[in-house]
Write a structure and sequence with these properties.
Helices cover 62% and strands 0% of the residues. The chain is globular, with a radius of gyration of 18 Å.
């Protein structure tokens, strides 16, 4: 458990370091260290993750409306991902002795999440209102 605790703390420090780096470095500025979306560069279309780095930058600077305009799906799913990551992280650190809650997606919810992501991907590439609001801007 001691090794897992040290690794867990290391991972948490790494995640916080990335968040602080993202907070201070705007991905939209010239010469940014963050790479552009290769799918968008190759096809001209927006993938489900397009705008995610910019949305993360806006969220770390507490600009929720701006983050929502960059990638609405990420903003909506991020709280669930953060809670699930924290729960599973604690369960992993504690190991077999962990008796708390666990994150398990029922099969139907897994398929619904996949359909939601694919639907978001398709809808954000339709160049008509209101769908164009889903594209990162």
């Amino acid at each position: 458990m001691k090794v897992r605790l040290i690794l867990g703390i290391g991972i948490a420090v790494l995640v916080l370091s990335v968040a602080f780096h993202l907070r201070g470095n705007d991905p939209e500025t010239e010469g940014s260290l963050f790479p552009p979306c290769s799918f968008n560069k190759a096809t001209g279309l927006h993938c489900p993750g397009c705008g995610g780095t910019r949305a993360g930058h806006a969220l770390t600077n507490f600009k929720i409306g701006e983050a929502f305009r960059k990638n609405a799906l990420l903003v909506l799913l991020l709280p669930f991902l953060a809670v699930a990551g924290a729960i599973e992280g604690v369960a992993w650190v504690k190991g077999a002795g962990y008796r708390g809650p666990r994150v398990r997606l029922p099969g139907g919810l897994s398929w619904a999440l996949l359909i939601l992501i694919l639907g978001f991907w398709i809808l954000r590439n339709i160049p008509f209102w209101p769908f164009e609001l889903l594209a990162p801007h």
